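INSTRUCTION: Work out how this chain folds

Fields: amino acid sequence; protein backbone structure tokens

Chain under study, with its fold:
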Amino acid sequence: MSDQPSTIGFVGLGTMGTPMCRRLAGAGYRVHAFDLVPERVETVVEAGAVAESSAAAAAAVADLFLTSLPRPHHVEAVMRGSALAALRPGSLWVDLSTNRKGLVQALASEAPAGVGVVDAPVTGAVDGARNGRLTVFAGGDPNDVSRARPVLERLGSVIDCGPLGTGNVVKLVTNQLWFIHAAALGEGFAVGSQHGVDVVVLWDAMKQSVADSFVVRHDAPSIFAGHYDPSFSLDLCLKDLELVSELAASVQAGLPMTDAAHGAFAVAAERYGTGAGELHVTRRIEDDAGLSFQMAGDWTPPWEQ
């Protein structure tokens, strides 16, 4: 088998998986795709992928097998259910999901002889997935990461994080700070608005000061538009925050900012439902304070950019 993967198996065609799969198929790779929702498979077939009847079927033909699934238990069900055993010696499994470090390591220990494993969760939202501007956090044996790199670089920039499992640690730390920033952004808008400063003025000031961040630039327009970014649900925020809490438990110090963010997202989910968009963590502040950060403007949703 060539060191450079030519045939890709792809399982998990959700909000992030579909644009990633379409991008790889459009780049000329032979992509064999599966999802439990047939309509999602049809979408990637339109981009040149081949439909498979099961996750195991996609794994069996793959030099490089990619999974992009919502939760650790979904990854476990797919891999222990059939896909892991179907992988051929010399092939490589790369998990793009935000996962539990210990689970990835356990599954790697159960893989058939000669199968490499890399954990490579991604960040950069739906627009990053569509446009190849994701950041990929890769953990694993350097040779395995090197083999996966040409494919992963079609999705965005790749950061070598260290041994297997560290990709997910890095991803969860970045999400830890993302959620803290998202909760804090609404608090900043609330204080400024309450004292007569236009929200756009506040936003411009944030972008040109020490307050600047990806969250400020990427997420604020979803608040202004009033849709609060339904492409990433409060349920997924809480899932990631729970995984962060598992990692944080071994830190011998209090992490009050992380705890506060977890609490803020839990309150938003209780009020608006777990399926509501992530930035309802800000809407809760608007509603409680009797403020509105919404405004007229051409606020193109991130997933359409």
Q: What stands out?
A: The mean pLDDT is 95. Residues 166-194 form the longest helix (29 residues).
